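Self-study notes.
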Amino acid sequence: MNIDDLKSELDQIKEEKYNLLKLINHDIRSPFNRVFALLQLFEMESEGASEMQKNYINSMYISVLSGLEMITNLRDMREIDAGYISIEKKEFELATTIKRALRSFSKQIDIKKIKVRAELDIESTLINLDEYYVQRVIENVISNAVKFSKEDKEIILKLTKETDFYRLEVIDEGEGIKDDEKHIVYSKFKKLSANATGGEGCLGLGLHNSKYFLSEMKGKIHFRGNENGGTIFVIELPVN
């Protein structure tokens, strides 16, 4: 096989991979959405349900929402690998986007009885970036905090403004990140040994995708241990 044949075969493999991920995003998302809608109906009719039955419904909620999140991360990875990421800047209120990202995890937070404190009240949070990718970064970091938090633990979101950038800290009280695993935190398909407290699935893509999105927007992400246990992830976003 000559080099042209190898190149053609490689291109074909890449195309098949792209189409497979496209299929996952569109066709496999649909049954997850249908199950989620059925769960909402079950919950509405669960007034006389036993505590065990309610726990089953909550477990199904967490599984379905985890599955939808993994599909979204696969879609993001597909777009990154295909070179389809295009940053479109516009002005928006960062605090509003953070609140919207947080609301997308309201069901998991409620089920796990996690306490959330959002310290977002600064004078102005106007920023000029791609709002979609900023929200995806924030969602991925909040997702990890929720995923590894036990019942009655607290998650704190703290937004501050420096001269040239905003700093968002997402502070959790989970297991934390082991020293010998810190080097793989942003690696594709690398999963840490910490266990998700609700049995959520994990592909090891969220932080990998987030680091890429931030690099395209001239932003940064880093983390450190929380002295009370858990992890503090810091997202830095340029104002303009």
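Second protein, same conventions, sequence then structure:
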Amino acid sequence: MTALLSSRWVKLGLAVIGAGALLAAGSLSGPYQAQIATLAAIYVILASSLNLLLGYSGLLSLGHQAFFGIGAYWSAWLTTTWELPMVLGLVGAAAGGFVAAYIIGRITLRLRAAFFVIATFAVGEICRQVALNWVDVTGGPMGFSAIPPLEIGSLQFLEPTETFPVCFAIAGICVIFVARLSQSSLGYSLRGMARNENLARAVGIDTARHANLAFSIGGSMAAVAGSLYAHTVGFISPEVFDFTIMINTLLMVIGGGLGTVVGPVIGAVLFTQLPEVLRFSSEWRLVIYGGVLVLLVRFLPRGIWGSLVQLLKRWTTPTGSGGAGPAGEAKPVEPPGAAEPPGALTGQRKDAAGLTRAAPTVEGGAP
């Protein structure tokens, strides 16, 4: 059963079924729900980009919404002032977010622990103040309006039921990209760096370069989400740099499953839809929302998807399998004093060069 759940074809089938269900639910539920689903798809991109930093690299950035806002303003400026097509505005936002994250990462990643967290928080606040006071470029408190809608060539997507499939497709591409990245050499290096940076540096991993690369890729993905938001809503203001966006994204990543591919997707969909479901009570809505968060953290510390994967592994692992072979035969007993092979310690593996590297955790790999 465990081998069946870990099969690549089973994972692919479950992913296709889940994607099809989300696409059908967002497209066939009416304009209002389609608009909420579009926002959820944008948050999937933003949460996946933050998960690349926090979940895989172990970097807690409290200014990640800055790249979301940079992508929104940069794409809006390219498509209105320079009158570029929306597709080029999206590409320009991704490039601009990458460059901005690279420059900011070169400065902030020199810091560690709480100093890095405070520095990234300051970056987000600086960007908000710039958008608020640079009136000639950003429009100041009045915001940036008349942003063209989503379009591909001469085909425009105006209605929510039309914009959702486009945002859904781009979100799917970003999720697949993160899944492939998590299984690459960079993904394993990032997880090793998150577990023990000194050990990762000792075995030859360029931690500074890899951390800055992850920071830049995460900033580029966040800028793509900001660009889609700007062209979907048609208006942006300095509120796109608000710290509330950062908190919501952080809840989506932790609540869905930190360090997993599917977790941020579940978190983005759940925490985008939950406030709408709780609108039946304007007085108790925030109380219920807070209670759900407390229960989630208390009883599902690994997040929804991380806890589900752990529970499935417990159910599918035969009781007492550690002492019996495949046919139920007892495993041979090691002679007294037998030495363990190098790299046999829990959480380590031996590479081709004979060096012992930190092995990825269960949460770090793709589900």
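Instructor comment on the second fold: The chain has 15 helices and four strands.
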